[in-house]
Write a structure and sequence with these properties.
This protein is of the alpha+beta class and 260 residues long. It has two domains: 120 residues, Aminopeptidase, CATH 3.40.630; 123 residues, Aminopeptidase. It has a twelve-stranded mixed sheet, with helices on both faces. The longest helix is centred in the last third of the chain and has 13 residues.
């Protein structure tokens, strides 16, 4: 019999997610102690067999619900119907294709577009650039000002700076580019890139490529799988990530979900 369970055991969750690490990379990263306290996990199970998992991350001002799957949407649709009533009144959705229709019956949907999940498939060669410097919490004001211009709608959690996995590219004594992570775990050996942007005045000079390449070469010393999410219509970014060694492995829809 199918039933929804709230999971609290990291190992049980990980054993399911590791079946497709690339698809579930961000969720696996959230198993790390750094993120774990801000997560809730819902599983549709048949006896002791997990069919699908939903992750609700509450580390940001607006929670994020992530439901990703391969193949048929049968189990995902059942899970969504079962948990709709206990979800927050407002949340971001990262949902495999086919679930928005279910959400729209009880929620107002603000659609942000289709996204690709990409995974790094090769070793990044050594690359050095004296313009690149590590970013820390002491740089927070400069970073926030940078994102207001370079990437105003990004999801930036200043806690991520504590991981020491953010890099800045400086030109003319100005922060011209940033590359960082959304999730990172040495324990589970995964990293999900995020907050990658170049200031409009410095675009077209390869700063994003250089920053992301150096970040990846550093991360590859500590993790086994590196991934990222990118809008499907961002041809320039996709080309850049392809040139570094990323391949598209899945698609999903991103949206803001609000109660009527």
């Amino acid at each position: 019999m199918l039933a929804v369970h709230i999971l609290h055991d990291k190992e049980i969750i990980y054993q399911f997610l590791r079946k497709n690490i690339g698809l579930h990379l961000y969720a696996i990263g959230d198993l790390d102690d750094f993120f774990w306290s801000r997560t809730s996990w819902f599983a549709l199970m048949e006896n002791q067999d997990i069919k699908i998992i939903a992750l609700l991350y509450t580390g940001m001002n607006i929670p994020t619900l992530q439901i990703l799957y391969e193949g048929d949407s049968f189990y995902a649709e059942i899970l969504v119907k079962e948990i709709l009533q206990i979800l927050p009144r407002k949340f971001y959705g990262l949902l495999s294709t086919g679930l928005l229709g279910l959400m729209s019956k009880q929620f107002e949907i603000e659609y942000y577009g289709k996204y690709y999940k990409m995974e790094l498939k090769k070793l990044v060669p050594e690359l050095n650039d004296l313009h690149i410097h590590p970013l820390t919490i002491g740089d927070i004001l400069e970073i926030q000002e940078f994102f207001k211009t370079a990437y105003p709608h990004n999801w930036f959690d200043s806690r991520m700076l504590e991981t020491n996995k953010y890099l800045g590219y400086y030109m003319d004594d100005r922060l011209a580019g940033v590359s960082g992570i959304h999730v990172y775990s040495r324990e589970y050996r995964v990293a999900g890139l995020g907050n990658i942007a170049t200031h409009p005045e410095y675009r077209g000079q390869g700063i994003g490529f250089t920053l992301t390449s150096v970040l990846c070469q550093n991360l590859q010393k500590e993790v086994d799988v590196i991934g990222l999410n990118v809008r499907s219509d961002n041809a320039f970014a996709i080309k850049c990530y392809n040139s570094i060694g990323f391949d598209i492995i899945a698609t999903f829809d991103e949206c803001l979900v609000k109660s009527y």
